[in-house]
Amino acid sequence: MRIWRAAIGAAAMGWTAGAAAQSTLPPRPVAVTVQADRPVGTLPPVWRFFGADEPNYATMKDGRKLLVELGKLKSGEVFFRAHNLLSTGDGTPAFKWGSTNAYTETKDGKPVYDWTIVDGIIDTYLARGVRPYLQIGFMPEAMSSAPAGTPYQHSWRPGFDYKLIATGWTYPPKSYETWAELVYRWTQHNVERYGRAEVERWYFEVWNEPNIDFYWQGSPEEFYRLHDFAIDAVRRALPTAKVGGPDVAGAGGAFMDGFLKHVSSGKNYATGATGTPTDFLSFHAKGQPSFVDGHVRMGIATHLKEVDKGFVKATAIPSLAVKPVVIGESDPEGCAACPGRSNDYRNGTMYSSYTAASFARIWDLAARRRVNLDGVLSWSFEFEDQPWFAGYRQLSTNGVDLPVLNVFRLFAKLGTERLTATSDAQVPLDTVVAEGVRGAADIGTLATRTADGKVAVLLWHYHDDDLPGPDAAIRLSVAGLKRGGGKVGRATLWRIDGDHANAFAEWKRLGSVQSPDQDLYAKLEAASRLQPETLTVTAGAKGTTVLDVRLARQGVALVMLDK
């Protein structure tokens, strides 16, 4: 606890000094141009996926509260992925752990199925407009082939060696038929409880990152067998289920090559047929921040390179190339529960600006590779009853939203028709993928037309280094509005920066209190919310509409214009 509070205090001091230095620098002029009458394809709402190691947090007070906010983003179309939905235990959460006790055995080896805890988790999702991206795992204790004496539940905690999580739940089953029967009965139960039409909308995948021994102690071929038996069991219970995988770490290397070959043309271990039903493909991509010369330096290039490698693999086999792709975990680094100075970015606007800049490039890479991108899943939720702003990768702290959650609220305001938009300060895609943002800041944009005909313009001001820098003085020119140049109905601005939609900044202004009373709590909630501002709009040359936006370094903004 003392270490966390010291780190939080250091982060607060760094933010204050940075903000003060930033305010004294002259702004950088930036020209952003949008052609509202020139669509350039679609912008799929891939941001609507989230997940966490700890499934039981979903049913706790702050977990339930956060799920409400996620469900509001796009009700019925938000998906949540969680580990440990089949792990043995009483449902008590811990760091990187959870359990449901879905499968146990009597003393004489007879199976006992109990859906009480897992039903409670899924009920909680659905009641709040969120659906399962259902991960089938991990191995119940009674089924695990772990050597005698291997502990089943790990005792990992923040700061421990990550490899300590690999205990008895990571092993193949003693019987693949018993494993398949569990999956079959679970799917059958879900159809009976929630209805066929509901469960048809879910995603079903097997395990997590089976290409690394943190999560899978078997061979690749043993995983293919595990996968085949599980997918066959799901499809026997629900022939129309949406099934896929394998949610590998990174692009998956040789493991992913083998998996793709197996599901497309190999012999199915469960049925003997050729191939395995595959409705979507999934892999993971992470960045790599570091702590350099007293500040955090993000690793967006590492993140995007892995995304691009994954896209190349996903389209390598013709029969699979058109399948929807989900990046099943996509984050600035690899461990939501891990502390460390390189993770000091998480509470403030570095995380939010990184999210905007990285998603924009992922959309672009998908278009370049002609990938049918269906989802980009942010592995960040919340950690119940932890210190305020403890530095975990999460969307809220003690029920109060962090700045990063507001980026997803801005994404939710975008339309799906992408418009031509350019910024003279946006770092080119190839440069960001190769080098990150290490020179001039990346002041970028993308624009869409919404379903009701408005023009939504997203703006971000990102740099890999968490250091002060000048604001961006953005001159936004929009051509092709249906009402022509001059005055439009209205223009609305939402901002996320040191002074807007930022509970972390407010918490520090209030004295970094670890036990705020109800009045301080209400102030933190108010400070976390996006607040609309009205912009002054003027007529520009050749029928354009012109407006000015001041955007702080590591800030994100959205401008909405009427038709």
Automatic annotation (TrEMBL):
<protein>
    <recommendedName>
        <fullName>Glycosyl hydrolases family 39 N-terminal catalytic domain-containing protein</fullName>
    </recommendedName>
</protein>
<feature type="domain" description="Glycosyl hydrolases family 39 N-terminal catalytic">
    <location>
        <begin position="31"/>
        <end position="531"/>
    </location>
</feature>
<dbReference type="Pfam" id="PF01229">
    <property type="entry name" value="Glyco_hydro_39"/>
</dbReference>
<dbReference type="InterPro" id="IPR000514">
    <property type="entry name" value="Glyco_hydro_39"/>
</dbReference>
<dbReference type="InterPro" id="IPR017853">
    <property type="entry name" value="GH"/>
</dbReference>
<dbReference type="InterPro" id="IPR049165">
    <property type="entry name" value="GH39_as"/>
</dbReference>
<comment type="similarity">
    <text>Belongs to the glycosyl hydrolase 39 family.</text>
</comment>
<keyword id="KW-0326">Glycosidase</keyword>
<keyword id="KW-0378">Hydrolase</keyword>
<feature type="signal peptide">
    <location>
        <begin position="1"/>
        <end position="21"/>
    </location>
</feature>
<dbReference type="InterPro" id="IPR051923">
    <property type="entry name" value="Glycosyl_Hydrolase_39"/>
</dbReference>
<keyword id="KW-0732">Signal</keyword>
<dbReference type="InterPro" id="IPR049166">
    <property type="entry name" value="GH39_cat"/>
</dbReference>
